[in-house]
Amino acid sequence: MASFLFLSLLFSFLHFTSSIPSIGITYSSTVSPPPPPFPAKVSSLISALKITSVRLPDPDPSLIKAFAPTNASLFLSISNSHLPALASNGSVALSWLRRHVLPLYPRSKISLISVGNTVLDSTTIQDFSPFLLPATRNLHHALQELGINKIQISATFSFFSTITTAFPPSSAVFQQPAGDLIIKPLLQFLEQTNSSFLINIYPYNLFRLNSEIPIGFALFQDNPFNFRDDPVTGIRYFNLFAMMADAVLTAMAAMGYQNIPVVVAETGWPSGGSQAEEVEANGVYAEMYLKGLVRHLKSGAATPLKKDGVAEVYVYELMDHSGGDNERGRKWGILTENMTMKYNVEFSSGAKNSGICLVAIWFTNWLLITSMNLILGFVGIQG
């Protein structure tokens, strides 16, 4: 009987074994194509940092090839300007894959391709949203035509142009009309192709828009006042990242697609602002955010609503660099422009075998209690 009870508990604990979300980094090249020594230098640097997932918004073939020796998982992005051509003709999708994927895969471990980035962002000059779905489908069909079945195809969205609210997360839905016209059919495509939903989550930007958010809540800091309770679900949130992630999961569930994995394509905290009033954009806060993010993800509780709701998270970005737009005017890198490390953060992660650990603890206690009972029983018999 005792043996049967132990085996039953063993299998019930094993059922709860979970994995820590993969933590990757974005590398944005300042020139395309990058000069010959540079791709190899960047790939060696990322290997030294023990980063196993890399997002390449500017996926030049020479850069993709340079990552082959590292065995790093690569997440490629296709710029919005390519969407009209990809949507209009399947041969364009084949041509893109023949240049960026076919000669390099599978030696370069390409696992995911995003068709466009934040196409719903209202700040963009041209509206690329009508081209998103046909371009995504054409690229998927082109991969199948080439006999490649292990690369996911998806599209990346911005939290602020996609989700209605961050708090309470239980009230979040996708903004309309894009929710029904674009996101819902895309979610259907992702479910059919076993792909992931990609979203950019920047607590820094939400913090700047809402003066009621405590800085400690945005920076994963532990103190008695750093929490918010969802009045509908009763879930208590201890950081802004988890709250925003659960808002995304709630919006997906409202459309009936709660089982699609979520990949956070970009997140980070700038060490320098593009405007003088951005006093919170500093190195101290940036390091606090990155350390808190890594600690939070390694705890295995990426979101309170769904423990495996976030499959991967990509930090933006590897290196500081100069740029023209507002986002690139800020300093988001974990390295300076001359590749000097700015923070002491350990990004490597691995499987979290919580079920195995619980079984080990339970089994130790079971042995101890059983031994004590046998001893006491023996003493009782002798007495």
UniProtKB/TrEMBL annotation:
Q: Is this entry keyworded Transferase? A: no
Q: What is its EC number?
A: 3.2.1.39
What PROSITE patterns has UniProt attached to this entry? GLYCOSYL_HYDROL_F17
Using the record, list the residue span of the signal peptide; answer none if the entry has no such feature: 1-19
- Name the UniProt key words of this record, in alphabetical order: Glycosidase, Hydrolase, Membrane, Signal, Transmembrane, Transmembrane helix
Q: What is the enzyme's class at the highest EC level?
A: hydrolase
**Transmembrane helix: is it a keyword of this entry?**
yes
Which residue windows are transmembrane per the record? 359-381
Task: Please identify the protein, giving its name as recorded.
Answer: glucan endo-1,3-beta-D-glucosidase
Provenance organism: Gossypium hirsutum
